[in-house]
Specification:
The structure is a homodimer.
Chain A: H1 15-37, H2 44-51, H3 55-61, H4 65-93, H5 98-112, H6 114-123, H7 129-152, H8 157-176, H9 183-194
The structure holds a DNA duplex.
DNA sequence: GAAAACTGACAATGCCGATTGTCACATCTT
DNA sequence: AAGATGTGACAATCGGCATTGTCAGTTTTC
Protein backbone atom coordinates (compact mmCIF):
# COMPACT_ATOMS: atom_id res chain seq x y z
CA UNK A 1 0.00 0.00 0.00
CA UNK A 2 1.05 3.61 0.39
CA UNK A 3 3.30 4.64 -2.50
CA UNK A 4 2.56 8.31 -2.87
CA UNK A 5 4.10 8.88 -6.32
CA UNK A 6 4.98 12.47 -5.52
CA UNK A 7 3.19 14.33 -8.34
CA UNK A 8 6.12 16.59 -8.92
CA UNK A 9 5.75 19.55 -11.24
CA UNK A 10 8.17 20.91 -13.77
CA UNK A 11 7.92 24.25 -15.46
CA UNK A 12 4.51 24.58 -13.95
CA UNK A 13 3.06 21.38 -15.47
CA UNK A 14 2.30 18.03 -14.01
CA UNK A 15 3.71 14.84 -15.44
CA UNK A 16 0.55 14.14 -17.36
CA UNK A 17 0.44 17.64 -18.75
CA UNK A 18 4.02 17.54 -19.90
CA UNK A 19 3.49 14.21 -21.57
CA UNK A 20 0.39 15.40 -23.29
CA UNK A 21 2.16 18.51 -24.51
CA UNK A 22 5.01 16.49 -25.90
CA UNK A 23 2.63 14.15 -27.60
CA UNK A 24 0.74 17.04 -29.13
CA UNK A 25 3.99 18.64 -30.24
CA UNK A 26 5.02 15.44 -31.96
CA UNK A 27 1.72 15.23 -33.79
CA UNK A 28 1.95 18.83 -34.97
CA UNK A 29 5.53 18.32 -36.07
CA UNK A 30 4.61 15.10 -37.82
CA UNK A 31 1.99 16.80 -39.94
CA UNK A 32 4.52 19.43 -40.93
CA UNK A 33 7.32 17.00 -41.71
CA UNK A 34 5.05 14.57 -43.54
CA UNK A 35 3.88 17.42 -45.68
CA UNK A 36 7.43 18.40 -46.39
CA UNK A 37 9.07 15.15 -47.32
CA UNK A 38 6.24 12.63 -47.31
CA UNK A 39 5.50 10.02 -44.71
CA UNK A 40 7.88 7.46 -46.09
CA UNK A 41 10.83 9.78 -45.91
CA UNK A 42 9.97 11.23 -42.56
CA UNK A 43 12.41 9.79 -40.07
CA UNK A 44 11.69 9.65 -36.39
CA UNK A 45 14.68 11.84 -35.84
CA UNK A 46 13.50 14.58 -38.18
CA UNK A 47 10.09 14.68 -36.55
CA UNK A 48 11.59 14.91 -33.09
CA UNK A 49 13.84 17.73 -34.20
CA UNK A 50 10.89 19.60 -35.65
CA UNK A 51 9.04 19.11 -32.41
CA UNK A 52 12.00 20.36 -30.44
CA UNK A 53 12.20 17.05 -28.64
CA UNK A 54 14.60 14.19 -28.50
CA UNK A 55 14.03 10.69 -29.78
CA UNK A 56 13.52 9.31 -26.36
CA UNK A 57 10.19 11.11 -26.09
CA UNK A 58 8.99 9.61 -29.29
CA UNK A 59 8.87 6.20 -27.73
CA UNK A 60 7.28 7.61 -24.65
CA UNK A 61 4.16 8.50 -26.62
CA UNK A 62 4.23 6.17 -29.58
CA UNK A 63 5.01 2.59 -30.13
CA UNK A 64 6.32 3.01 -33.61
CA UNK A 65 6.36 5.25 -36.61
CA UNK A 66 2.97 4.25 -37.97
CA UNK A 67 1.45 4.77 -34.55
CA UNK A 68 2.20 8.45 -34.85
CA UNK A 69 0.85 8.56 -38.38
CA UNK A 70 -2.39 7.05 -37.16
CA UNK A 71 -2.60 9.56 -34.32
CA UNK A 72 -1.93 12.45 -36.67
CA UNK A 73 -4.61 11.20 -39.02
CA UNK A 74 -7.12 10.97 -36.22
CA UNK A 75 -6.30 14.45 -35.06
CA UNK A 76 -6.51 16.02 -38.49
CA UNK A 77 -9.75 14.33 -39.46
CA UNK A 78 -11.31 15.10 -36.11
CA UNK A 79 -10.64 18.80 -36.52
CA UNK A 80 -11.87 18.78 -40.08
CA UNK A 81 -15.07 16.98 -39.21
CA UNK A 82 -15.69 19.33 -36.34
CA UNK A 83 -15.39 22.29 -38.63
CA UNK A 84 -17.61 20.71 -41.23
CA UNK A 85 -20.26 20.01 -38.64
CA UNK A 86 -20.10 23.57 -37.38
CA UNK A 87 -20.38 24.96 -40.89
CA UNK A 88 -23.36 22.75 -41.57
CA UNK A 89 -25.20 23.82 -38.47
CA UNK A 90 -24.42 27.47 -39.03
CA UNK A 91 -25.73 27.34 -42.58
CA UNK A 92 -28.88 25.55 -41.60
CA UNK A 93 -29.52 28.05 -38.87
CA UNK A 94 -29.45 30.63 -41.63
CA UNK A 95 -31.86 28.56 -43.64
CA UNK A 96 -29.21 27.58 -46.17
CA UNK A 97 -27.98 24.27 -47.56
CA UNK A 98 -26.01 22.61 -44.79
CA UNK A 99 -24.47 19.90 -46.91
CA UNK A 100 -23.19 22.47 -49.33
CA UNK A 101 -21.64 24.47 -46.52
CA UNK A 102 -19.94 21.36 -45.13
CA UNK A 103 -18.53 20.45 -48.52
CA UNK A 104 -17.28 23.97 -49.01
CA UNK A 105 -15.50 23.81 -45.70
CA UNK A 106 -13.96 20.50 -46.71
CA UNK A 107 -12.56 21.68 -50.00
CA UNK A 108 -11.49 25.01 -48.59
CA UNK A 109 -9.41 23.37 -45.92
CA UNK A 110 -7.86 20.96 -48.39
CA UNK A 111 -6.91 23.86 -50.54
CA UNK A 112 -5.27 25.57 -47.59
CA UNK A 113 -3.15 22.54 -46.78
CA UNK A 114 -2.11 20.86 -50.01
CA UNK A 115 0.76 18.90 -48.50
CA UNK A 116 -1.32 17.55 -45.67
CA UNK A 117 -4.03 16.65 -48.13
CA UNK A 118 -1.54 14.63 -50.13
CA UNK A 119 -0.30 12.76 -47.10
CA UNK A 120 -3.65 11.94 -45.61
CA UNK A 121 -5.52 11.21 -48.80
CA UNK A 122 -2.88 9.46 -50.85
CA UNK A 123 0.18 8.34 -48.99
CA UNK A 124 -1.72 6.94 -46.08
CA UNK A 125 -2.94 3.94 -48.02
CA UNK A 126 -1.44 0.58 -47.12
CA UNK A 127 1.15 1.88 -44.74
CA UNK A 128 0.32 -0.73 -42.14
CA UNK A 129 -2.67 -2.67 -40.88
CA UNK A 130 -2.89 -0.39 -37.89
CA UNK A 131 -3.11 2.74 -40.01
CA UNK A 132 -5.42 1.11 -42.52
CA UNK A 133 -7.79 0.32 -39.70
CA UNK A 134 -7.88 3.92 -38.53
CA UNK A 135 -8.52 5.19 -42.04
CA UNK A 136 -11.18 2.61 -42.69
CA UNK A 137 -12.87 3.59 -39.46
CA UNK A 138 -12.87 7.27 -40.40
CA UNK A 139 -14.33 6.57 -43.80
CA UNK A 140 -16.90 4.25 -42.33
CA UNK A 141 -17.93 7.05 -40.01
CA UNK A 142 -18.42 9.40 -42.92
CA UNK A 143 -20.40 6.79 -44.76
CA UNK A 144 -22.56 6.13 -41.75
CA UNK A 145 -23.22 9.84 -41.50
CA UNK A 146 -24.85 10.06 -44.89
CA UNK A 147 -26.23 6.55 -45.16
CA UNK A 148 -29.61 7.42 -43.59
CA UNK A 149 -30.18 10.19 -46.11
CA UNK A 150 -29.27 7.88 -48.95
CA UNK A 151 -31.55 5.16 -47.67
CA UNK A 152 -34.39 7.58 -47.35
CA UNK A 153 -34.11 8.03 -51.07
CA UNK A 154 -34.43 4.33 -51.57
CA UNK A 155 -30.85 3.70 -52.59
CA UNK A 156 -28.52 1.02 -51.39
CA UNK A 157 -26.15 1.75 -48.53
CA UNK A 158 -23.21 1.13 -50.83
CA UNK A 159 -24.22 4.26 -52.69
CA UNK A 160 -23.26 6.18 -49.57
CA UNK A 161 -19.79 4.71 -49.76
CA UNK A 162 -19.66 5.69 -53.38
CA UNK A 163 -20.57 9.26 -52.61
CA UNK A 164 -17.85 9.54 -50.00
CA UNK A 165 -15.30 8.07 -52.39
CA UNK A 166 -16.48 10.42 -55.08
CA UNK A 167 -16.10 13.48 -52.91
CA UNK A 168 -12.56 12.40 -52.14
CA UNK A 169 -11.70 11.65 -55.73
CA UNK A 170 -12.97 15.03 -56.79
CA UNK A 171 -10.58 16.50 -54.26
CA UNK A 172 -7.69 14.47 -55.63
CA UNK A 173 -8.45 15.48 -59.17
CA UNK A 174 -8.67 19.07 -58.13
CA UNK A 175 -5.37 18.88 -56.31
CA UNK A 176 -3.72 17.13 -59.25
CA UNK A 177 -4.89 19.93 -61.51
CA UNK A 178 -3.10 22.41 -59.33
CA UNK A 179 -6.41 23.71 -58.02
CA UNK A 180 -7.40 24.83 -61.47
CA UNK A 181 -11.06 25.36 -60.51
CA UNK A 182 -12.71 27.68 -58.09
CA UNK A 183 -13.91 26.17 -54.86
CA UNK A 184 -17.54 26.77 -55.72
CA UNK A 185 -17.29 24.81 -58.92
CA UNK A 186 -15.83 21.91 -57.03
CA UNK A 187 -18.53 22.10 -54.42
CA UNK A 188 -21.19 22.08 -57.10
CA UNK A 189 -19.73 18.98 -58.69
CA UNK A 190 -19.68 17.24 -55.33
CA UNK A 191 -23.25 18.29 -54.64
CA UNK A 192 -24.31 16.86 -57.95
CA UNK A 193 -22.75 13.59 -56.95
CA UNK A 194 -24.55 13.67 -53.64
CA UNK A 195 -27.78 13.79 -55.54
CA UNK A 196 -27.06 10.32 -56.87
CA UNK A 197 -30.01 8.06 -56.51
CA UNK A 198 -32.54 10.79 -56.36
CA UNK A 199 -35.41 10.07 -58.53
CA UNK B 1 29.92 0.70 -88.87
CA UNK B 2 29.62 -3.07 -89.16
CA UNK B 3 29.18 -4.61 -85.71
CA UNK B 4 27.01 -7.63 -86.39
CA UNK B 5 26.01 -8.41 -82.80
CA UNK B 6 25.62 -12.13 -83.47
CA UNK B 7 21.95 -12.64 -82.62
CA UNK B 8 22.65 -15.80 -80.75
CA UNK B 9 19.75 -17.94 -79.55
CA UNK B 10 19.32 -19.79 -76.31
CA UNK B 11 16.66 -22.37 -75.60
CA UNK B 12 15.08 -21.43 -78.87
CA UNK B 13 14.64 -17.72 -78.05
CA UNK B 14 16.43 -14.65 -79.17
CA UNK B 15 17.96 -12.24 -76.72
CA UNK B 16 15.00 -9.93 -76.95
CA UNK B 17 12.56 -12.77 -76.44
CA UNK B 18 14.36 -14.07 -73.40
CA UNK B 19 14.49 -10.63 -71.90
CA UNK B 20 10.83 -10.06 -72.54
CA UNK B 21 9.97 -13.41 -71.00
CA UNK B 22 11.97 -12.65 -67.91
CA UNK B 23 10.36 -9.28 -67.61
CA UNK B 24 6.92 -10.80 -67.92
CA UNK B 25 7.80 -13.48 -65.38
CA UNK B 26 8.89 -10.81 -62.93
CA UNK B 27 5.64 -8.93 -63.36
CA UNK B 28 3.56 -12.03 -62.83
CA UNK B 29 5.59 -12.98 -59.79
CA UNK B 30 5.33 -9.46 -58.43
CA UNK B 31 1.56 -9.52 -58.53
CA UNK B 32 1.58 -12.81 -56.67
CA UNK B 33 4.09 -11.75 -54.04
CA UNK B 34 2.54 -8.34 -53.52
CA UNK B 35 -0.77 -10.04 -52.94
CA UNK B 36 0.84 -12.35 -50.44
CA UNK B 37 2.84 -10.04 -48.25
CA UNK B 38 2.00 -6.57 -49.52
CA UNK B 39 4.15 -4.33 -51.64
CA UNK B 40 6.09 -2.88 -48.77
CA UNK B 41 7.20 -6.26 -47.53
CA UNK B 42 7.92 -7.67 -50.93
CA UNK B 43 11.68 -7.82 -51.26
CA UNK B 44 13.39 -7.93 -54.60
CA UNK B 45 14.80 -11.27 -53.64
CA UNK B 46 11.43 -12.82 -52.88
CA UNK B 47 10.00 -11.67 -56.18
CA UNK B 48 12.94 -13.06 -58.10
CA UNK B 49 12.61 -16.36 -56.34
CA UNK B 50 8.94 -16.52 -57.19
CA UNK B 51 9.79 -15.74 -60.79
CA UNK B 52 12.44 -18.45 -60.82
CA UNK B 53 15.07 -15.88 -61.62
CA UNK B 54 18.04 -14.43 -59.90
CA UNK B 55 18.41 -10.87 -58.66
CA UNK B 56 20.68 -9.94 -61.50
CA UNK B 57 17.75 -10.11 -63.90
CA UNK B 58 15.72 -7.78 -61.83
CA UNK B 59 18.03 -4.92 -62.62
CA UNK B 60 18.13 -5.96 -66.22
CA UNK B 61 14.46 -5.09 -66.63
CA UNK B 62 13.78 -2.61 -63.86
CA UNK B 63 15.57 0.30 -62.41
CA UNK B 64 14.23 -0.11 -58.94
CA UNK B 65 11.52 -1.65 -56.87
CA UNK B 66 8.85 0.91 -57.63
CA UNK B 67 9.56 0.59 -61.32
CA UNK B 68 8.31 -2.97 -61.19
CA UNK B 69 5.28 -1.94 -59.19
CA UNK B 70 4.42 0.61 -61.82
CA UNK B 71 4.84 -1.93 -64.59
CA UNK B 72 2.68 -4.44 -62.75
CA UNK B 73 -0.01 -1.83 -62.25
CA UNK B 74 0.01 -0.95 -65.91
CA UNK B 75 -0.28 -4.56 -66.90
CA UNK B 76 -3.09 -5.35 -64.52
CA UNK B 77 -5.15 -2.30 -65.37
CA UNK B 78 -4.61 -2.80 -69.06
CA UNK B 79 -6.01 -6.30 -68.90
CA UNK B 80 -8.91 -5.22 -66.77
CA UNK B 81 -9.84 -2.35 -69.04
CA UNK B 82 -9.62 -4.59 -72.07
CA UNK B 83 -12.04 -7.00 -70.50
CA UNK B 84 -14.38 -4.24 -69.46
CA UNK B 85 -14.38 -2.84 -72.95
CA UNK B 86 -15.10 -6.25 -74.42
CA UNK B 87 -17.93 -6.84 -71.98
CA UNK B 88 -19.43 -3.47 -72.83
CA UNK B 89 -19.36 -4.09 -76.54
CA UNK B 90 -20.76 -7.57 -76.19
CA UNK B 91 -23.66 -6.36 -74.09
CA UNK B 92 -24.47 -3.53 -76.41
CA UNK B 93 -24.43 -5.89 -79.36
CA UNK B 94 -27.11 -7.80 -77.50
CA UNK B 95 -29.03 -4.59 -76.96
CA UNK B 96 -28.22 -4.52 -73.25
CA UNK B 97 -26.76 -1.92 -70.94
CA UNK B 98 -23.06 -1.73 -71.77
CA UNK B 99 -22.04 0.32 -68.75
CA UNK B 100 -23.70 -2.17 -66.46
CA UNK B 101 -21.85 -5.03 -68.13
CA UNK B 102 -18.54 -3.24 -67.80
CA UNK B 103 -19.13 -2.55 -64.11
CA UNK B 104 -20.09 -6.14 -63.53
CA UNK B 105 -16.87 -7.27 -65.13
CA UNK B 106 -14.96 -4.85 -62.93
CA UNK B 107 -16.41 -6.03 -59.66
CA UNK B 108 -16.32 -9.65 -60.67
CA UNK B 109 -12.62 -9.51 -61.36
CA UNK B 110 -11.93 -7.67 -58.12
CA UNK B 111 -13.78 -10.33 -56.29
CA UNK B 112 -11.70 -13.01 -57.95
CA UNK B 113 -8.44 -11.37 -56.91
CA UNK B 114 -8.89 -9.85 -53.48
CA UNK B 115 -5.16 -9.59 -52.73
CA UNK B 116 -4.37 -7.91 -55.99
CA UNK B 117 -7.27 -5.55 -55.44
CA UNK B 118 -5.86 -4.54 -52.11
CA UNK B 119 -2.42 -3.88 -53.50
CA UNK B 120 -3.49 -1.92 -56.53
CA UNK B 121 -6.31 0.03 -54.96
CA UNK B 122 -4.93 0.74 -51.52
CA UNK B 123 -1.25 0.12 -51.06
CA UNK B 124 -0.27 1.76 -54.28
CA UNK B 125 -0.91 5.25 -52.98
CA UNK B 126 2.09 7.42 -52.31
CA UNK B 127 4.70 4.78 -52.91
CA UNK B 128 6.76 7.09 -55.09
CA UNK B 129 6.28 9.93 -57.54
CA UNK B 130 6.88 7.55 -60.41
CA UNK B 131 4.14 5.18 -59.30
CA UNK B 132 1.80 8.00 -58.41
CA UNK B 133 2.14 9.32 -61.92
CA UNK B 134 1.20 5.99 -63.44
CA UNK B 135 -1.83 5.66 -61.21
CA UNK B 136 -2.93 9.22 -61.85
CA UNK B 137 -2.66 8.60 -65.55
CA UNK B 138 -4.77 5.47 -65.36
CA UNK B 139 -7.45 7.23 -63.37
CA UNK B 140 -7.37 10.20 -65.69
CA UNK B 141 -7.94 7.80 -68.56
CA UNK B 142 -10.99 6.37 -66.87
CA UNK B 143 -12.29 9.82 -66.15
CA UNK B 144 -11.76 10.90 -69.73
CA UNK B 145 -13.68 7.85 -70.85
CA UNK B 146 -16.87 8.88 -69.11
CA UNK B 147 -16.44 12.63 -69.18
CA UNK B 148 -18.25 13.11 -72.50
CA UNK B 149 -21.32 11.28 -71.24
CA UNK B 150 -21.32 13.36 -68.08
CA UNK B 151 -20.96 16.58 -70.03
CA UNK B 152 -23.78 15.64 -72.28
CA UNK B 153 -25.94 15.67 -69.20
CA UNK B 154 -24.84 19.18 -68.43
CA UNK B 155 -22.67 18.31 -65.46
CA UNK B 156 -19.21 19.48 -64.67
CA UNK B 157 -16.25 17.36 -65.70
CA UNK B 158 -15.28 16.96 -62.07
CA UNK B 159 -18.41 14.91 -61.63
CA UNK B 160 -16.79 12.32 -63.86
CA UNK B 161 -13.86 12.14 -61.49
CA UNK B 162 -16.30 11.76 -58.65
CA UNK B 163 -18.03 8.88 -60.33
CA UNK B 164 -14.78 7.04 -60.89
CA UNK B 165 -13.76 7.59 -57.29
CA UNK B 166 -17.15 6.43 -56.15
CA UNK B 167 -16.97 3.22 -58.13
CA UNK B 168 -13.61 2.52 -56.55
CA UNK B 169 -14.77 3.35 -53.05
CA UNK B 170 -17.73 1.06 -53.45
CA UNK B 171 -15.26 -1.66 -54.32
CA UNK B 172 -13.18 -0.91 -51.25
CA UNK B 173 -16.19 -0.96 -49.00
CA UNK B 174 -17.30 -4.20 -50.50
CA UNK B 175 -13.89 -5.74 -50.02
CA UNK B 176 -13.70 -4.47 -46.45
CA UNK B 177 -17.03 -6.10 -45.73
CA UNK B 178 -15.60 -9.41 -46.81
CA UNK B 179 -17.71 -9.31 -49.97
CA UNK B 180 -20.87 -9.35 -47.95
CA UNK B 181 -23.06 -8.38 -50.92
CA UNK B 182 -23.83 -10.07 -54.15
CA UNK B 183 -22.12 -8.71 -57.21
CA UNK B 184 -25.39 -7.54 -58.71
CA UNK B 185 -26.21 -5.41 -55.71
CA UNK B 186 -22.83 -3.77 -55.94
CA UNK B 187 -23.27 -3.16 -59.63
CA UNK B 188 -26.64 -1.57 -59.01
CA UNK B 189 -25.20 0.79 -56.43
CA UNK B 190 -22.47 1.81 -58.84
CA UNK B 191 -24.98 2.35 -61.60
CA UNK B 192 -26.99 4.56 -59.34
CA UNK B 193 -23.93 6.63 -58.76
CA UNK B 194 -23.30 6.85 -62.47
CA UNK B 195 -26.70 8.43 -62.82
CA UNK B 196 -25.45 11.41 -60.82
CA UNK B 197 -26.31 14.64 -62.46
CA UNK B 198 -29.16 13.27 -64.43
CA UNK B 199 -32.13 15.40 -64.21
C1' DG C 1 22.07 24.55 -1.01
C1' DA C 2 21.89 19.55 -1.71
C1' DA C 3 19.63 15.62 -3.32
C1' DA C 4 16.29 13.94 -6.67
C1' DA C 5 13.79 13.97 -10.79
C1' DC C 6 13.63 15.69 -15.56
C1' DT C 7 15.60 16.93 -19.85
C1' DG C 8 18.39 17.27 -24.19
C1' DA C 9 22.33 16.03 -26.97
C1' DC C 10 24.61 12.49 -28.74
C1' DA C 11 26.82 7.91 -29.38
C1' DA C 12 26.43 2.66 -29.86
C1' DT C 13 24.01 -0.99 -31.46
C1' DG C 14 21.40 -3.81 -34.44
C1' DC C 15 18.75 -5.09 -38.30
C1' DC C 16 17.29 -5.41 -42.98
C1' DG C 17 17.39 -5.17 -47.65
C1' DA C 18 19.14 -3.17 -52.13
C1' DT C 19 22.78 -3.54 -55.26
C1' DT C 20 27.00 -5.49 -57.12
C1' DG C 21 30.36 -9.08 -57.81
C1' DT C 22 32.15 -13.94 -58.26
C1' DC C 23 32.15 -18.49 -59.97
C1' DA C 24 30.66 -23.03 -61.46
C1' DC C 25 27.56 -25.01 -64.66
C1' DA C 26 24.48 -25.16 -68.88
C1' DT C 27 23.65 -24.27 -73.59
C1' DC C 28 24.95 -22.58 -77.71
C1' DT C 29 28.13 -22.06 -82.18
C1' DT C 30 31.40 -24.00 -85.43
C1' DA D 1 34.58 -31.45 -78.93
C1' DA D 2 36.33 -26.60 -77.86
C1' DG D 3 35.43 -22.16 -77.02
C1' DA D 4 32.11 -18.55 -76.20
C1' DT D 5 28.22 -16.86 -74.06
C1' DG D 6 24.13 -17.15 -71.00
C1' DT D 7 22.57 -18.49 -66.55
C1' DG D 8 21.75 -19.43 -61.51
C1' DA D 9 23.32 -19.74 -56.81
C1' DC D 10 25.40 -17.31 -53.54
C1' DA D 11 28.53 -14.14 -50.95
C1' DA D 12 30.12 -9.33 -49.98
C1' DT D 13 29.33 -4.68 -49.65
C1' DC D 14 26.88 -0.74 -48.41
C1' DG D 15 23.80 2.53 -46.45
C1' DG D 16 20.00 3.95 -43.71
C1' DC D 17 17.30 4.25 -39.90
C1' DA D 18 14.96 2.61 -35.63
C1' DT D 19 15.80 1.78 -31.02
C1' DT D 20 18.44 1.86 -26.74
C1' DG D 21 21.87 3.67 -23.72
C1' DT D 22 24.95 7.23 -21.50
C1' DC D 23 25.84 11.55 -19.35
C1' DA D 24 26.15 16.32 -18.21
C1' DG D 25 23.26 20.11 -17.24
C1' DT D 26 18.62 22.04 -15.42
C1' DT D 27 14.70 22.62 -12.60
C1' DT D 28 12.37 21.10 -8.33
C1' DT D 29 11.65 19.90 -3.79
C1' DC D 30 12.80 20.04 1.17
Amino acid sequence: MSAAPAPRRYRGRSIAERQAERRAALIEAAVAVYGDVGYRNASVKAICEAAGLTERYFYESFEASDDLLAAAYREVTRRLHDEMGAAKRAAEARGQNGVKAALKMYYTRLREHPEAARVFLVEIGGVSPRVDAVVAEAIANSVALIAPAVRRRGAHELVAAGIVGGVIQIALDWIASGYARKVDEVVDAALRLCAAGER
